[in-house]
Amino acid sequence: MDITHYYIEQGKGEPFILLHGNGEDSSYFSNQMNAFSSMYHVFAIDTRGHGKTNRGNEPFTIRQFADDLLEFMDSHNINRANILGFSDGANIAMIFAMKYPDRVNKLIVNGGNLNPKGIKRMVQIPIEIGCKIASACSGKSQQAKQNAELLGLMVNDPDIAVEDLVKIQAATLVIAGTKDMVKEDHTRLIAKNIPNAKLQFIKGNHFVANQNPVEFNHAILDFLKQ
Questions:
Q1: How do residues 49-93 score in pLDDT, each as one tens digit?
Q2: What is the pLDDT of residue 3?
Q3: CA distance 3 to 50
Q4: Interatomic CA distance for residues 216 and 209, integer angstroms
Q5: Is beta strand 41-45 parallel, antiparallel or unpaired with respect to 7-10?
Q6: DSSP string of 63-114?
Q7: DSSP 141-170
Q8: Backbone angles phi, psi at 162, to 5 degrees
Q9: 3 state SS of 27
Q10: How far is CA 129 from CA 29, 67, 83, 100, in A?
């Protein structure tokens, strides 16, 4: 393994792994840790090249991050876990659940997307422009190179075929904000194609876990208890 994950750990019981979004870190879930750790052994992880986890030498892709998660679970003797992924974390979680179905207990997909077409254009266009500019400057500075990689995840990834969602065997909750940057019909498409998935919209934008934590946390814990 070419990286060492930084993570926050809290609580006891069944493992519950939290995966943040693009350009964020484990602190994104500050409003969730206490609520979830009252019932679960919670691990909030900094993804490769995010927060305090080093970049390493492997490809900077959602699929690599899914393999990194497997390494994390193996190194912490976690056989199966509940997994909550937000945004790019949701995309990591979906790919992980497809590749390693026997390692997932319950899955929560929050604000995920299958491809860039699932994102509202007014959000996606600036990302694509920013990626082109950062890529053009990536030879000149480390910061530009880093920005190009982060933005590249939102331009080239996660590239999930809708028909592959049937590979997800875990009980799944698909959750998004009522004013999410992911198109509502795209969120519905994901929920429709994951076998027996539940779908829930919570008042707020893409960042409902921060904006509306009481309702968000209640929805997650309610689903996990079922």
A1: 999 999 999 999 999 999 999 999 999 999 999 999 999 999 999
A2: 93
A3: 11
A4: 6
A5: antiparallel
A6: HHHHHHHHHHHHHTT--SEEEEEETHHHHHHHHHHHH-GGGEEEEEEES--S
A7: -HHHHHHHHHHHHHHH-----GGGGGG--S
A8: -60, -35
A9: helix
A10: 29, 29, 32, 35
Whole-model pTM: value is: 0.96
Q: Which two tokens mark 207?
A: 């960042």
* Residues written for the chain: 226
Report the Cα 206 to chain-centroid distance in Å. 12
3-state secondary structure of 62: helix
What type of residue is 52?
K
Distances (CA, A) of 32 to 39, 65, 205, 209: 12, 22, 17, 8
Higher pLDDT, 1 or 205: 205
